[in-house]
Amino acid sequence: MTRATVIGAAMIPMGKYPKSSYAGLGAPAAMNAILSSGIDPATIDSVVCGHAFGGMLTAQRITKEIGLGAVPMLNVDNACSGGATAIHLAASRIQSGQSDAVLVIGVDKLTQFGGGTLPLVAEDPEVQNGMVMPALYAMRAKRFLHERDETVDILAAVSVKARKHGAQNPFAQFQSEVTAEAVLASRPIADPLTLFQCCPTGDGAAALVIVSEHRRKALGARGMAVAASVLHSGKATTGFRHMLRPEITYHSAADAYEAAGIGADDLDMVELHDAFTIAELVYYEALGLCPEGDAADFLRSGATGYGGQVVVNPSGGLIAKGHPVGASGVAQAVEAFWHLTGQAGVRQIEAAQTAMTHVTGGGIAGMDHGACTIHIFEAVQ
Amino acid sequence: MPIDTDTQAMAGQACTADHLPISDLDIENRKDFQTQDGQVVLVGSRSASSGTMAFPQKEFCPETGARDMEQITFGPQGTLYSFSTIHISATRETPYTIGYVDFENGLRVLAHVRSQGTLTCDQPVILQADDSAWWVSPVGDVA
User: Does B60 contact chain A (CB < 8 Å)?
Assistant: First the structure.
């Protein structure tokens, strides 16, 4: 099995772009990723595009703008895990010898819905009964505060850290810091979650070029190798679910550490799925970054900020960087690439060698999440 | 605090105009046609490096991805390659006729066709316009 290595990465700054099509969002990201890799576009032998709301032939609509065609193109939806699932498929194609050079695109345009919560599938009985994504996370948060004897201050602390990191990221939708007071005073969305505790609605696109070891050596390219690429689906249950212990992330993380042959202590950075503040706390434990029950103290200790044990969401995460759902998994990998290749500028994590990216994909009854994708990347000189 | 480094290549810090999305849905501000010396022409673009042309105007060369498209105009004469009259629509007044028109510079454009009589494939057509829209008509209808 050959190694798959990311040798090029790019994204557009996330934001609200109602006057851009999916092609208008995706083409600059795709072209800049190709340019950053140094690869001849004519040698890209397949394209995988992750999205949730792009409609038919999203990959082809984007790549036709920059002269790519004829090669196999796969379009994949897995809700918020769509982009990361595209990376998973691309890595599989390379590792199995099917492909030598794959362009991966993650893209979505949420401004097409005119605001409000993410539109979920109306066929779902819980959705018919009023379920929206903030409600699911709000119930997690309620349970967390109840079981851990914490207050909303710990939720606000997640947003404060996210926005502090995002303030250093020119590709983030929010590039300003906030105070805990401002977070808690922002308007209520789903109690106890306030507006500044929720990822914003927005548009975005990100892209990677992933190649085989043979091609990487021929190009003399540095980058980051895919040390683990794990995709899990939720298993529905009609009974009790522990909302602070999302099994899908626990299982995916265990498989990822095993595949990479490393442990959580080896990670220099993690980009995790902080769609809402509570998620970051829950995932500290699910990803094994801290012992179960310690998430609040772990955050308060500064362990997940710069200079701490592992920098979590150096990009600002979904809360500050933005969360155009299908784009996020790829955008997380772009951030990892910049750190592992020493190109992250003022937010560079010193001597970063190993990164994890984690996205889930939610929105159906009886499951923690419908999908979960975890990648571990290692710097390649 | 984030750590400063001496690295020169700072892709993660450099968000330039080339990183921004393309406002390709800004149709109200997109100029697709104009009148030149009393004749209607279409406004497209051509890559300075590859010569590849496109209509409507594009930001990237559709063959090479080069970001060096320059504005061109073309027409008014073209050839109707094929066409159809559409009798059902949830959004448009019916019937209406559209067809593919090939221009001398090689561009193929989907056009509305307005005709007094019978249309045929390979018929010469000419661009027409009013203040808000453009279409083609058979040369014989206009002359």
Answer: yes
